[in-house]
Design goal:
Layout lengths: L1 H15 L10 H11 L8 E7 L2 E7 L8 E6 L4 E6 L6 E2 L2 E2 L4 E8 L1
Antiparallel strand pairs: 1-2, 1-7, 2-3, 3-4, 5-6
């Protein structure tokens, strides 16, 4: 009986620890989120969709569990466009300042 109680509690905690992936997120990005979820930090991790250079891009922010971590940027076909942040403080993707990107939505967060 205790075994079932423990399993139930773990399932509830696991399901409530992160928000579901938002509707309209491309299938390959959903797969990437599934992979990312096991590698990211416990706090502050998220995936956001932006309009950037006339296409939708997805920024995978690993959260706040280490210094100088980078956020990987993918297009809708899951092609990596580069990394933001890190020790160098990079904010350029495809030769353009990423501050020009427009946030559409948060697709997933922990």
């Amino acid at each position: 009986m205790k075994f079932y109680l423990i399993i139930t509690c773990l399932l509830i905690l696991g399901l409530s620890s992160c928000q579901p992936i938002k509707y309209g997120t491309p299938p390959c990005i959903k797969i990437k989120i599934g992979e990312f979820e096991s590698k990211c930090c416990d706090n502050g991790a998220n995936v956001k969709e932006y309009d950037f250079k006339e296409e939708k891009v997805y920024v995978f922010d690993p959260g706040t569990c280490g210094a100088d971590m980078t956020s990987q940027v993918f297009n809708e076909e899951c092609v990596s466009l580069g990394y933001l942040g890190g020790i160098t403080g990079n904010y350029t993707i495809l030769g353009e300042d990423f501050s020009n990107a427009e946030l559409n939505k948060t697709c997933w967060e922990k």
